[in-house]
Amino acid sequence: MKVLVPVKRVIDYNVKVRVKSDQTGVDLANVKMSMNPFDEIAVEEAVRLKEKGAAEEIIVVSIGPQQAQETLRTALAMGADRGILVKTDDAVEPLAVAKILKGVVGEESPDLVILGKQAIDDDANQTGQMLAALLDWPQGTFASEVVLEDGKANVTREIDGGLQTLSLQTPAIVTTDLRLNEPRYASLPNIMKAKKKPIDEKAPGDYGVDTAARLTVVKVTEPPEREAGEKVEDVATLVSKLKAEGAI
Amino acid sequence: MAVLVLADHDNESLFDATHKTVTAAKAFGGDVDVLVAGKGSGAVAEAAAKIDGVRKVLHAEGDALEKQLAEAMEALIVPLMDGYDALFSPATTMGKNVTPRIAAKLDVMQISDITAIEGTDTFERPIYAGNAMMTVKSSDPKKVVTVRGTSFDAAGEGGSASVESIDAPAGPFKSAFVDEKIVQSDRPELTSAKTIVSGGRALGSKEEFDRLIVPLADKLGAGVGASRAAVDAGYAPNDYQVGQTGKIVAPELYIAIGISGAIQHLAGMKDSKIIVAINKDEEAPIFQVADYGLVADLFNAVPELTEAL
Question: Which terminus of chain B, N or C, has fewer Cβ atoms within 10 Å?
């Protein structure tokens, strides 16, 4: 079985973003970039499937600038077999990403595509579902457990109020939630080995996809600031303040 | 102009997120219809017909619609969109799961989690866990959006729309429902609770979480939330998680106990009306957004607070 895992290069999870003063976006200059955390979970899940003998090959793909190659190397060091860089300096929207991925799926014929449920930069939470629709594949989004058996993927999903398990015919799309697994750190020998793993370079045009944006950014602004209030001395003061406000 | 609103429900009751989505749809403009897709969901369709400002309820019943599985929902909704200029879904796990499939089939770039509407093509939405707000203008002929519930008031009752039955899509579909573990609780659901008591890692164990957070929530008739750290440590179930990747809440009163206030947590609760923080670390970032901060050992302060109420 072949598994495809798309990975995105985003601002590191721990970096506090700054909105540019001209309101055109957020400041990406000299900011630490990393693999989207949900995508790390997706890579980890694929690697575990391979370690269990359920998957033979893991292909990772990233759509982005030349530097996205570093993100692919990270995935290769975690245990993926080879990478595809679909190189573009444009900001590619989820719909166009899904179309490019459909092209990659057409060439690679994976049985499973595992994606992060959302990227922590645009927080869109769309790409996996869109890819599933474009391919007419079933989807198991927000997965906290994936079990493969007899040509089916049984996916347990985190939904409002609890958990839901679906049985999907493969090929299928899975998107990862936080608790699917805890991604490993790549070991130094594996980082060295990853340098020798192949990365193919492509362009969106190779898949016939027009990446022109459908959404124009009008402005990007700071969220309304919330002022720190007051410190209260003790529980009694807190209770009386809350009573005075009618909150309790 | 006409907007189709996708209803979220459990076949028995219509979720409040639907009423909020109707409000957003009304702000967008035009006639507002609500789609109720389910099984044995007649009462839900009747409830949707009573929402103020709804023109018509479309009601589809079918086995594959019972759990609103994405593949069946796509087959149902895509043909309906011929008659609509926009699809508005609540940004609940149901809406997030289903809506992008429809957008892709319509070749529309979806706008997720909108917090404001500035015209028929311009919407505001949070990015970077709410650390920036982005306003975008869509060039697509139809608009497909999901609506952040905390940014819109629930539409009231008082409508008397007609309910029109429509056919469920013919299967088979490539996914099947196996089972579900829904936590049965008398507590208010987090996204609609007026008061929320949330616990963090400082509680140290599930036993302490249950011993300290739950009685306080009971006293206040509050929903119970948790930080990601507390959920990851197993102190509280997954669906308690408040934050960027969990639930987005905006109650009248949010009491954060033993929560340091990572940006990902703040993203989920900073629109609450009054925030109370109890933490022994006076440098904890949660105090920067709290209206009332109490620097204290939670193991003493929380029982005292529960007692005082």
Answer: N
Cβ pair A42, A5 in contact under 8 A: yes
Query: Do B241 and B147 belong to one domain?
Result: no
In the listed set B118, B134, B166, which residue is the last one of a domain according to the structure?
B166
Residue A94 touches chain B, beta carbons under 8 Å: yes
pTM of the model: 0.94
ipTM higher than threshold 0.85: yes
Q: Provide the CATH number for the domain around residue B194.
A: 3.40.50.1220
pLDDT at A161: 84
Nearest-angstrom CA–CA distance, B266 and B1: 37
- B183 domain-assigned: no
Q: Render A102-131 in DSSP notation, one character per residue.
A: HHHHHHH--SEEEEES--TTT----HHHHH
Chain B from 183 to 242: CB within 8 A of any A CB: 183, 189, 191, 195, 220, 228, 231-232, 237-239
pLDDT digits (tens, 9 = 90+) for B153-201: 999 999 999 999 999 999 899 999 999 998 778 888 898 899 999 999 9
Q: Which residues of B touch A144 (CB under 8 A)?
A: 238
Q: Is A196 on the interface with B (CB under 8 A)?
A: no
What DSSP character marks residue A81? -
Whole-number Å distance between alpha carbons of A61 and B272: 39
Task: State the Cα–Cα distance between residues A182 and B140, nearest whole angstrom.
Answer: 39
User: What does pLDDT average to in each consecutive run of 10 residues of chain B (309 residues)?
Assistant: 97 96 97 98 98 98 96 98 98 97 98 97 96 97 96 95 97 95 85 94 97 96 96 93 92 97 93 96 96 97 96
- Domains of chain A in start order, with CATH, are 2-221 (3.40.50.620)
How does DSSP classify residue A183? Answer: P
